[in-house]
Amino acid sequence: MDKQILASFQGKSYLKEIDFTPAQLKALVEFGQEIKTAKQNQTLQPFLKGKNVILLFAKNSTRTRLAFELGAQEMGANTVFLDPASSQFGKKESVADTAHVLAGVADGIAYRGFGQADIEEMAADAYDTNGKHAPVWNALSDQWHPTQMIADFMTLQSEFGQLDNQITLAYVGDGRNNVARSLLVAGAMVGINVNIIAPQSLQPDQETVELAQKYAQAAGSQVLITDDLDQGAAEANVFYSDVFVSMGENNWQERLEALMPYQINETLLQKSKHYGHDLITMHCLPAYHDDQTQVAQELHAKYPGLVDTTGIEMSDAVFKGAQARHFQQAENRKPAIMAIMAATLGNLDLL
């Protein structure tokens, strides 16, 4: 890990991957691995000792909240969780005014919202009356999920030993959502091949594709956007999925009709030349892989011709298969987010 590169994050917000260089993203991945090892060895340094961190979440969360809250505490910070029900945010107070207030009482702000523009505005206004800036960390927006990427890259690095074009990640499903966009662009930045397999109506916008192609060309990797399952799966040694309908959306029938043919199942895995060896599956969770959730049960009852009880975006057999790395991803969320917080706000003299 390059300490000089890591120091370049100090005082900065972490809003989207393209605000940083490929080398900086890789440094965060390495730092996350070191924090994970230090935690296991009980040698973790109190990088955030004496700091106050606010978690402002307008959307529900499990992994992201736990990673920020517990991760900050384990590095010595005090944390406070706020949502719209327990604060004035979104009702009586604007994003800008909230940013100024939070920066006046805390040192860092994790913001999980809807529009990317709101998160950008939060970071632009997160100054106290003395001009001190509080870094803002994007805990998820409609366009990007940058903390997820560091956890995903940690998972890939642990599995394959490196991040390069020997890895071909095939994201299958809604290619326009925040996870797909982040994987496409950030994956190209760090040098892995990224395939987006989605129906044409749900493929990423041309601007995002061109941005990813530019990064891929510089890194020596490739990006592929296709609706052809055979073409998209042929070289893949990583299959990645997310729910078909994101938070804030409710067009289930339309999405199920379009995307059920793109379920990650054994038939799809068999289309890869890596089937049976050197192949993993990933999912950022939560996953509708069985009938053990209220949502999955409701969808099965409402759309029995489209949804059975053995999975939606990923089959239960694949989700529980030996190649599954979903819970490794989930565990990596905390050290990844700890690395982001420590790099931007922490005392790096402890390294």
From TrEMBL:
The keyword Transmembrane does not apply. This is Ornithine carbamoyltransferase. It is an enzyme of class 2 (transferase). InterPro entries: Asp/Orn_carbamoyltranf_P-bd, Asp/Orn_carbamoylTrfase, Asp/Orn_carbamoylTrfase_sf, Asp_carbamoyltransf_Asp/Orn-bd, Orn/put_carbamltrans. Its EC number is 2.1.3.3. It is found in: Cytoplasm. Residues 166-343 form the Aspartate/ornithine carbamoyltransferase Asp/Orn-binding domain. It comes from Convivina praedatoris. Keywords: Cytoplasm, Transferase.
